[in-house]
Amino acid sequence: MKQNPNTLPIAALVLAGALTLSCGKQLNEPQDSGKTVTLTATIGLDATTKALDATGKKTFAVDDQIAVIYKQEGGATAKALSNPLIDTDIREEGQKAAITVTLDSPAADGAIRYIYPASMAMATVDAEAAVDSDAATIDFSKLSAQDGTLASLAASYDLSVFDGTFNGTELPGSALLSNQLAIGEFTVKNWSGTVITTDLTSFAFTDGTYTYTITPASPATNLTGPVYVAMLPVADSQELTFTATDGTYNYTRSITGKALAKNNMYPVNLKMIRIVNLGNVTTTDGNGVLFLAAQNEDIISGAFSDPAYITIPGGATVTLDGVDLSSPFESDHAAIHCMGSANIILKRENQVTTGSSSPYPAILAAHNEAVSGEEYTLTISGTGRLIADAQANRGAGIGGGGYDSNTGTYINCGNIVIAGGVIYVIGGMEAAGIGSGCGSSCAGIQITGGVILSAEGGQHSAGIGCGVSGICGDIIISGGQIGGDYEDGFYDGAWGDEDAAGIGCAGLASTCGKITIGAGVTYILAQVDSNFVPNIIGQSNNGVCGAVTIDESLTVVNSQNSMVIYPSAP
């Protein structure tokens, strides 16, 4: 059948009309082109929120804003800011506020989050992020720099959050914002308990993940105490490490076992350890001489700009961490002058020297002149090195001194305990390396650990024990190493000069107590430089010494000028 030429165009026209009608119908349907809605809600502060204002409670303030994180109809996560609060928005003495916010296509039944203050929200939020994701919506890095004041903390850092659901027409209206942070109220003290908060120019600490740096707001030059810090909660297993400075000294402290939970404020009396660089010390004594009055738990390093000295109060523990007192001090003080019982901890390399005209030792172990039978004790421990060089007229390397013409008395010393460290000691003229000076007394010497590379006595004096005409109490060696091989060479050990014992009496008139050497020693080398010394350990010419006892388990090798003691082979 022959086709009518007009049939195809008519059919095509009908089809085209149908397509046009269909397309026209689709264009007239409602489109998912987005909608903007402005909504209001009244929100409140949870009663447990603890970021306080001066009256003791958190309140909303004029110009505050809330960040609103929400899901849009298309599934994306978005952020909006509420209008700044005005007076009429704030109700119930600041505990509640009416907020107004404009949202773009909020999804019905979609998650919604309020973040207050808005400054703690991320500047932009990833469209794929979960609305209730802290990592994606909250900028915790804002906490890293604060000024330590309660006012700025409450206004800018005190993070409160509410998570809820948008029902399609209304914002969650009964929302209570819950505080997410702990608030530290730090009163900073030195180790003696004196408040130094107002002296500080900076204060910082870390929990191993986050670091908080507190710097006074301009134009202030110091913090006013206490120091308030908004911080993430801390588990009791975390270590908090604090640092601070007052412009002259730095301070440090590490603590564990302190849990800091959100929704709580913690008043903390923080006792900090002072870090002293001797090059920054400008304090002078009554004679105009530079000196450092050390404090308990001080960590001391560096060198004075001029010859000077350090005093350590009774009962204090001080760490020498790279101290250089090698410029001789020519006056009536030891380079380190203990005022009572003291503990010196050694770190790194340390050198302590007195001048050749001083009657004092390099390190004075104080003697208790006031109470008979209650002697002071100097204990030296740690893992660092110490060179104690008396160079003095009559002073020991560690211990006592000679005659002080100013007081008309001899410079006696208390007990000396060597428990650690790597030590090289040189006594002054007629003074022991470790022990008494010339004519003075030393209560007693104990060596329980550490390595004494060399303890060299001055003229006629023992390496460990008595100076000329001096008195030394009992000497007990129960551990450690004296002389011999050690890392970088071979050392002389306890060296008696001229007619003095290596360990024990001086060559001229002196008196020494009992000498006991226990099984715990690693190695002892005692030497004398004369063939006429009757005992390398113990009594010498013109000296009187108590009994010498050496544990039977030890091997003793005795030659004319030296004695070696070490554990027997198993």
Helix content: under 10%
Q: In whole angstroms, how far apart are the ends?
A: 123 Å
**For the residues shown, what is the average pLDDT?**
87
- Shape by Cα distribution: elongated
Overall tally of domains: 3
Q: Could you give a short account of the major beta sheet?
A: 29 strands, mixed
Using only C-alpha atoms, the radius of gyration works out to: 39 Å
Structural write-up:
The structure is a single chain. The protein is mainly β. It has three domains: about 140 residues; about 90 residues, Sandwich (Immunoglobulin-like), CATH 2.60.40; about 220 residues. About 5% of the residues lie in helices and about 40% in strands. It has a 29-stranded mixed β-sheet that branches. A nine-stranded parallel β-sheet has the order 17-19-21-24-27-32-35-42-46, with no helix packed on it. Strands 3-2-6-8-9-1-5-4 form an eight-stranded mixed β-sheet, with no helix packed on it. It is elongated, with a radius of gyration of 39 Å. The termini are far apart. The N terminus is likely disordered.
